[in-house]
Structure formats: C-alpha cells, structure tokens
Amino acid sequence: MDLLTAVYLIYSFISLYFLFFFIMIFLPHRREMLAAPRITKKYSLSMIISCYNEQDSIGDVIESLVKSSYDNINKIIVVDDCSTDNSWKIIKQYAKKYPNILAVKTPKNTGNAAGAKNYGARFADGELIGFTDADSYPEKEAISKMIGHFDDKKVGAVTSMVLVKNKNKFLEKVQAIEYKMIAFNRKLLGFVEGIYVTPGPLAVYRKSAFDKVGGFDGKNLTEDIEITWHIVAAGYIVKMSSLARVYTIAPNKVKVWFKQRIRWNIGGIQTIYKYRSFFGTRKAGMLGLFILPFFIFNWLLGLFGIGVLVYRVSRTLFLKYLATTYSIQSQVAVISFNDINITPSILVFFGIATIIMNLFLIGISLRYAREKTLKSDRLLNILFYMLFYLLAYPIILIISVFRFLTGKTSWMTK
User: Fold this and answer.
1) How far apart are CA 336 and CA 157, in angstroms?
2) 289, 282 in Cβ contact below 8 A?
3) Which helix (H) or strand (E) holds 381?
4) What are the φ and ψ backbone dihedral angles of 34, each rounded to 5 degrees?
5) 357 in the Ramachandran plot: left (φ > 0), alpha (ψ -120 to 50) or beta?
6) Per residue in 224-253, pLDDT tens?
7) Residue of 161, 143, 141, 189 whose CA lies nearest to 366
8) CB 91 within 8 A of CB 169
9) What is the enclosing helix (H) or strand (E) of 160?
10) What does the pLDDT average to over 56-85?
C-alpha cells in the first residue's frame, strides 16, 4: 500500500467516524428531536431587533414578535444602527403603534451587528434577553417553545431552528437544504452539550449569563459563535428547540453568499484563536473537551480533503499527459484492454459508504424540518449540495485563513 492510499484511508475512516457519531446520537434520542419542555414559569423577556438598512423587512419582523404567543415579552427594543434608508422612520411608526416597542438609535454606526445588539441590551430588563435579526421572521410559537429550557438553572442560552424563507432561485433552494442539515446537526450536538453557536435570527439568553460574559464581542465577525463559547466557558450549557422555527432571508447572489461565508469562517477562526488556551482542557468544560476539538477537526478535515483531491487529480492528469506524449512519440497504444481494471477497490467502498450515510442523514434532517421536503427538496438540489456546494467550503476556508493571517478582518455584510 502506497502512502497516499494509506492517507486517503485514514481520511475516509475519520469521515465515516463523524457520520457514525451523529447517527449514534440520533438513534437513542430520535423521539426527543421535536420535543420542548412545557412552560412552568413566565420569565420576563426583552427582545432586541438590530437593524441597518432593512426598510423592506423590519416592519414584518416587528409584527412577528408582536404576534408571538409568549405573552410575557415586556419590551421589544428595535435598534437602528444609523440606517441610510427609511428604516428609522418605519421603526418610529411601529413604536407609536405598539406601547411595548422601544425605538432607539445608536449615536453613530457601530459597523457590526454586535455593536447594535449591545447598545440595545442597555435598555433591556427582566430575566431573559432575546435577539432576532431585522430580516428574520420567528413563527408565532417559536419563543414559547424555547422558554421552558430555562427552568434548568445551568442553561445560559437557547437557540432555534433557522430555516430559509426565500426559496425561489437555485442557490436559495440549495441553502434551504443546508440550513435544515445544520439545524439537525446542531440539535444532535445539544444532546452531548456540544452546541457551538446561537444564530442571530433567533436566540434567547439568561440575562445574568449575558451580563456575566459582557455581551457580544464587537471585534468578532461572528458574535453569535463567540458569545456561545463564552457562555459555555462560564459554566453554562446551551440548548436548542427544534420546534422554535425562524425563517431568514438567505443570499440570492453568489457574490453575497461568498462574502457571508468568508465572514462566518473568519469569525470562527477569531473565536478559535481567542479560546485556544482551553483546547483539550477541563477548565472550560465541554468547550475545551468537545466544542473546540470538534470545530477544529471539521475544518482540518475539509482542508485535508480538498488537498488530497487536488493532489490526486493533478497527479492523474500529469501522468496521463506523460503517458499520452510517450505513446504518440513511440507510436504505442495509450491503453489496452488488459489495462482496464473493473475490480472495485477499498477506496471505492469507503466512498460509496460515505455517500450513502450522508444521504441518510440529509434525508432525516429534511424529514425533521417538516416542510413538505419531498416536494420542495429535489434530488438534484440534494446532490448539488453534497457534491459541489460542500466542495466550496474548503476553498472558502483557505481564503478566510489567509485574510485572518493578513489582518483583513473588517466587517462584511451578508
């Protein structure tokens, strides 16, 4: 066995290990996937919407919170981060319409989501504090399905299932599959206290935990990842409610999607670097023992996989070129029937096994999203997500690492 084959086998084994890992978590907890603890206490809650140039959506987002079935939202704080469109005008109109809405405006543009969120948090009171983006629409029952988790005093934050609202273009449909897969995996990680992000579209925090960690980190491009790690490092656990659904607007242009993913990855790298001292240690609980290793392992796996693929393809093409050139010059057949080997190798077996297990997990995640997926998620979209969409991530990660190392970490809008 040559070195490259051995390396590829190790890579395949690790990939299959992670797939088995998720399947083994799912099987004993499958009946808990769509369960939410009932509300035994009406915690007082302040919800914050951060807004910058969202005049087309901010009104509907405010309405979605006003219509929430959770009747103890004592305040909805809408923060305008010095928008240049009509967002502020619309926000003030809703503040006049509903008495529990507080319209506030930052003294100057903060330049990132964390700044606007932290500014809004100054006006929050109560036991819980929640956040939603100005382009994200929580379902009526969403917040109600999250509150019961806070009966456990160890819970510092609760996240939701983020789904794609716009699903017309091909890129949007592929992201819809991706978001369901991410939500499904996040729920599974919750069973091992391994949730590593509370996404911005809808998250609720225990106010005391939020204050203890000092709110969001304004220097991090993914403030929702950083605060989750900070909360876990402070001794809390994070839960997810799959019944709490929020629909967000996904990028519909490749350029915008690319910028968003670069920002996500740079923010992840920033977070890893900030908490690197906790890697493999018990002093931060599951952050050091699971979240950090899992996060890093997945990224290294992606980088290594694309490296192996590029090497094998380049090597094959180069050898074919040499063989063809030699064959032409010596007038010898490039290939004969005896050179054809149709016996499947162990590498092919691992590849097929990986594809089948991936399809199995994707199928389950689509089923648990409960969005009539058999009609909306076509096989072509699923295959594109698996074979092409995921291949882009290692490339994006390489670019993100380069920008992080060169200090190009300014905020990039989605």
Assistant:
1) 64
2) yes
3) helix 379-384
4) -115, 35
5) alpha
6) 999 999 999 999 999 999 999 999 999 999
7) 161
8) no
9) strand 155-164
10) 96
Q: Tokens 């992670």 correspond to what residue?
A: 18
Give residue 198's Cα distance to chain centre.
9
User: 48 forms bridges with which residues in the sheet?
Assistant: 77, 131
Nearest partner of 162 among 144, 185, 189, judged by Cα = 185
Spatial separation of the C-alpha atoms in residues 166 and 153, rounded to whole Å: 37
Residue type, 217: D
Q: How is domain 1-336+343-414 classified at the CATH fold level?
A: Spore Coat Polysaccharide Biosynthesis Protein SpsA; Chain A (3.90.550)
Start-to-end CA distance of the chain, whole Å, equals 46
**101 phi/psi in degrees, rounded to 5:** -100, 130
**3-state class (DSSP) for residue 179:** helix
Q: Which two tokens stand for residue 321?
A: 């070129």
- Angle of CA points 222, 224, 227, to nearest 5°: 110
The sign one gets for the Cα dihedral 56, 111, 206, 265 is positive
Three-state secondary structure call for residue 156: strand
Give how far the C-alpha of residue 173 lies from the chain's centroid of Cα atoms, to the nearest Å.
16
Q: Helix, strand, or coil here: 256? A: helix
DSSP string, 193-255: T------TTSEEEEHHHHHHTTS--TT-S-HHHHHHHHHHHTT-EEEEEEEEEEEEPPP-SHH
Q: Name the band, by pLDDT with cuts 50, 70 and 90, for residue 7.
A: low
**Residues near 302 by Cβ (< 8 Å), separated by ≥ 6?**
393, 394, 397
Contact 218, 262 (CB under 8 A): no
Inform me whether the pLDDT recorded for 115 exceeds 80: yes
Neighbours of 71 (CB within 10 A): 8
CA distance 311 to 317: 10
CB atoms within 10 A of CB 40: 9
Compute the distance between CA of residue 260 and CA of residue 253 in angstroms, rounded to an integer: 11
Domain ranges of the chain: 1-336+343-414
pLDDT at position 3: 65
